[in-house]
Structures are given as structure tokens and as C-alpha cells.
Write a structure and sequence with these properties.
This is Beta-carotene 15,15'-monooxygenase. This protein is mainly α. It is about 90% helix and about 0% strand.
Length: about 210
């Protein structure tokens, strides 16, 4: 049993022994916990931004990047990379704003509103990242289809054998499969990390609704 549960049980058992003080103690603990959770959401988003920078640096000389650069698609890949960073930076600012708001909140109602805003921001962030990556990957698969010599060569072989339709079907299926696997990994990561924090934040919200000052 954690400290919050002990306080709740003590509060429920108390009839005349300063119930108001006990309620305020529970609120203070919920406020502290909520502030800590939102801080962790901010820290994770900063870590994610840093991680993307490191991955981009490490992969800059990889065979895959050299292949992309050989197609002269920088006018597409560079803006996509910048947009990805801007999305993370924007939500980092939102998470920071939510953290500052929760940290200075001294009212249960405002704390509940801040928790709701944080939950909405995190959900919006996850959806935005997944949708953005889906669009980006589909665009890259189209560009590879149009400009990659290996894919064009494979297309010509299928066409020579009278199986051009099968080539299109296979390419689309492989593109969707690869995209689906990568997006699933993204979703599982966000579900594990942010989902756990949101679950705890939601618990705090429900506990706040029970308090009566």
C-alpha cells in the first residue's frame, strides 16, 4: 500500500479528526504526483528529440542514406526531416507549458483541467506522429517507385514477362507491410511509455474527483 492509499484510508476512517486537513493532504500528494508525471512526459519528449538527432547522425553514412542521396531526393527528405523535428519541438513546448501550469496550480479544479489538457496533448501528439510517419513513408515508397534504378529494373523484368500487374500488387503489399510494421512499433513504444504515464495521470484525475473540500 503506497502513501496515497494510506492517506485515503485514514481520511475515510476519520469522522471528527480534521477531515478537511486530510483531504488537503491527499490533494497535495495528487498535485505532486501529477506534476512529476507531466515532467516525465516532457523529459521523454526531449529524449525522443535527442534520439532522433543521434539516429540521423549515425545513419548519415549508411548504405540506405547513400541510396536515397543517389536519387537526389534531398528536396523531399530534408523537409520531411525538418517537419518531424518541428512536430516534436512543438509538442515539447506544449508539454512544458502544461508542466508549468500544473506545477503552480493551487486549486483542485484547475489541476483537473490541466490533467485533461495534458492527456489531450499526449493523445494528439501520438496520433500526429503516426499519421505523419504514414504519409512520409507512403511518399518515400512512391518516390522510390519512380526513381530507384533497382525498382525500375525489376518493373521492366516483370513487364517483359507479362507480369506487370503482379509487380504493382507485390510492391504495394510490401510497402503497406513495411509501413504497418514500423507504425506498429511506433504505436507500441508510445503505448508503453506515454500510455503508462497517462494511466497514472488518469488515476490522479479520478482521485481528485472524489475529494470534497
Amino acid at each position: 500500500m503506497d502513501d496515497l492509499d494510506k492517506l485515503k484510508n485514514s481520511w475515510k476512517k476519520s469522522t471528527d479528526n480534521y477531515p478537511k486537513f486530510s483531504a488537503k493532504e491527499i490533494y497535495a500528494m495528487l498535485h505532486k504526483r501529477s506534476s512529476s508525471i507531466v515532467k516525465w512526459i516532457l523529459v521523454i519528449s526531449i529524449t525522443e528529440f535527442t534520439l532522433w538527432l543521434v539516429i540521423s547522425f549515425l545513419l548519415s553514412d549508411s548504405s540506405q542514406m547513400k541510396r536515397i542521396n543517389s536519387l537526389h531526393l534531398n528536396y523531399i527528405t530534408t523537409p520531411l526531416e525538418i517537419i518531424n523535428y518541428l512536430i516534436i519541438l512543438y509538442f515539447m513546448f506544449i508539454f512544458y507549458t502544461n508542466y508549468r501550469r500544473i506545477k503552480v496550480t493551487d486549486n483542485a479544479k484547475r489541476l483537473m483541467q490541466s490533467i485533461l489538457k495534458t492527456r489531450k496533448a499526449v493523445t494528439t501528439y501520438i496520433i500526429t506522429v503516426i499519421v505523419y510517419n504514414f504519409i512520409s513513408m507512403m511518399l518515400l515508397f512512391v518516390l522510390f517507385f519512380m526513381y530507384d534504378p533497382n525498382i525500375i529494373g525489376a518493373e521492366q523484368k516483370f513487364e517483359a514477362n507479362g507480369n506487370l500487374g503482379w509487380f504493382y500488387v507485390l510492391y504495394i503489399l510490401l510497402a503497406l507491410l513495411a509501413t504497418g510494421v514500423i507504425l506498429l512499433l511506433f504505436w507500441l513504444f508510445y503505448k508503453l511509455i506515454y500510455g503508462l504515464l497517462l494511466k497514472r495521470l488518469n488515476r490522479n484525475y479520478n482521485e481528485l474527483k472524489k475529494l470534497d473540500f
